[in-house]
Specification:
Layout (H helix, E strand, L loop, with lengths): L8 H5 L3 E5 L5 H7 L6 E5 L5 E2 L5 E2 L6 E8 L9 H16 L5 E4 L3 E4 L2 E10 L5 E8 L23 H19 L3 H15 L6 E5 L5 E9 L5 E5 L5 E4 L3 E4 L3
Parallel strand pairs: 1-2
Antiparallel strand pairs: 2-5, 3-4, 5-9, 6-7, 7-8, 8-9, 10-11, 10-14, 11-12, 12-13
Helix pairs in contact: 3-4, 3-5
């Protein structure tokens, strides 16, 4: 099951330092414990207490997937909401580059393959202003043993090996570094173009569950300058900005 695991020279070349762990409760938490430096990374194939957006658990048996956390430089507060979108877009872009059809980003932090989740992103701010970007990627499931019925893995679409996963992750980090190194004005404009082209949520009818539990439906229209989602309420016609709510794609 873990024939794709090992050291990651390609990924390592993109980072200041990379800690390859046999297991970790949370690579985000481990990255927090280490001396913070731009583009320090922590990776494992056995994350025992992973978590996703809104406190949801990220489940993965040993050898099924990668948990990778990297520390990025501090960004302007108005741009921080773009980081999970950037990381998800980098994953989706690399899947497409490798011939995977139907890869797309579900706002704000999931990567789907034909509506099945293959990757999730969790970004957390550090006191220094740097951001820990956590990427969970399903690599290879054992038979039909999956965390959820609609979960997808990279190996469902393309053959996986140590070299493939190392190059895949290296390319994802390279993309993140490229965008994070841009001046703020260029970064916002470039991310709008990059993310919009990969955002499967746009143009979809979605269900929105606000933090107070209120549910409503609407058409996802566009992304704001801060990376928030603009949704046109299907009942009132009001164009609402969705910042921290839970969004579900509805069947077309």
């Amino acid at each position: 099951m873990t024939n794709w695991w090992g050291d990651f020279p390609n990924l390592r070349s993109e980072l200041r330092d990379l800690f390859v762990l046999s297991h970790a409760e949370s690579t985000n938490d481990k990255a927090r414990e280490l001396v913070a430096a731009d583009y320090l990374g922590v990776i494992t194939h056995n994350q025992t207490a992973g978590r996703g957006r809104l406190g949801r658990p990220w489940e993965s048996l040993p050898g099924q997937g990668v948990a990778l956390s990297i520390i990025t430089p501090s960004l302007d507060l108005k741009l921080r909401s773009w980081l999970p979108i950037l990381a998800g877009s980098a994953v989706a872009h690399e899947l497409i580059a490798r011939g995977v059809e139907g890869a797309q980003v579900k706002w704000p932090n999931d990567v789907l393959i034909r509506e099945g989740k293959v990757s999730g992103i969790l970004c957390e701010a550090l006191p220094s202003g740097r951001i820990v970007v956590g990427i969970g990627l399903n690599v290879q499931f054992e038979s039909e043993r999956r965390p959820t019925p609609d979960a997808r893995a990279v190996s469902d679409e393309i053959p996986v090996s140590h070299q493939v996963i190392d190059e895949f992750l290296g390319s994802v980090v390279r993309t993140i570094k490229t965008y994070c190194g841009m001046p703020p004005g260029d970064l916002r404009d470039s991310l709008q173009t990059f993310a919009t082209s990969l955002m499967g949520t746009l143009g979809r009818t979605v269900k929105v569950q606000d933090v107070d539990g209120l549910e409503w439906r609407g058409l996802a229209r566009s992304l704001t300058e801060e990376g928030h989602l603009l949704v046109e309420n299907s009942v009132t016609g009001e164009l609402r900005t969705v910042v921290a709510s839970d969004v579900t794609h509805l069947r077309q």
